[in-house]
Amino acid sequence: MWKLLVVLLIAVCWLRAAEGALPAIGDDPRIWENHSLVYAMVKDIEEGEPGHFTVTLSPMATLSGTFDCGLHSEIVSPLSTWMMVSSIKAAPERGDKVLAVVRPKSVEGEDDTGADEYLITASLVTFMPGGSALVKVTGFEDPVVAEVLEKIRETRAKGHQQGAEEEPASQTGDTPHDSATERARG
């Protein structure tokens, strides 16, 4: 009987998370102001309390966002697989290749200690399979990589179109370059 109660509690917790108890990111193109999608290898993973880990990623490529793989050779991040606090359902293993949505440890408006450190987000991520912020892939050629990139491109294109629609309709084209060109012609 108690096993049934545990299963029901887990199901209710997951449904709460899926219904918005966890923040969802990905549909707003502004996500890329402080989040990045990286392709990385799991260099190390250590379990603390059950369901709570410290993972070390070795980033190999940034697929979207501003994370600089040339500047940051590793990301050491807490990672939870507990449904109430994280979108990540299973921890990776050492050597796994992953797609991970990362953000600076400090974002604008927060304490700036650790401004040069990055974390794997715990939020639901709408463009990632299952909404998970960390997804195992077989390699860069894995079809999941292309599918995620296509979803990101669609979202970013919508944001670009919305931004263009919000600009004033009367564009004079009066940039310094355009003005100089006109004076040279005229």
Q: How would you describe this structure to a colleague?
A:
It is built from 3 helices and 8 strands; from the N terminus they run H-E-E-E-E-E-E-E-E-H-H. With 186 residues, it is α+β, with helices and mostly antiparallel strands. The protein has one domain (30-164): OB fold (Dihydrolipoamide Acetyltransferase, E2P) (Beta Barrel), CATH 2.40.50. Strands 2, 3, 4, 5, 6 and 8 form a 6-stranded antiparallel sheet that branches. Strands 1-7 form a two-stranded parallel sheet. Strand 2 (36-47) and strand 3 (52-64) form a beta hairpin.
Note the topology.
Elements: H1 2-21, E1 24-25, E2 36-47, E3 52-64, E4 75-80, E5 97-104, E6 118-120, E7 124-125, E8 134-137, H2 143-166, H3 176-185
Parallel strand pairs: 1-7
Antiparallel strand pairs: 2-3, 2-5, 3-4, 5-6, 5-8
Range of helix content = 25-40%
Strand/helix succession: HEEEEEEEEHH
Any idea what the shape is?
globular
**pLDDT averaged residue by residue:** 78
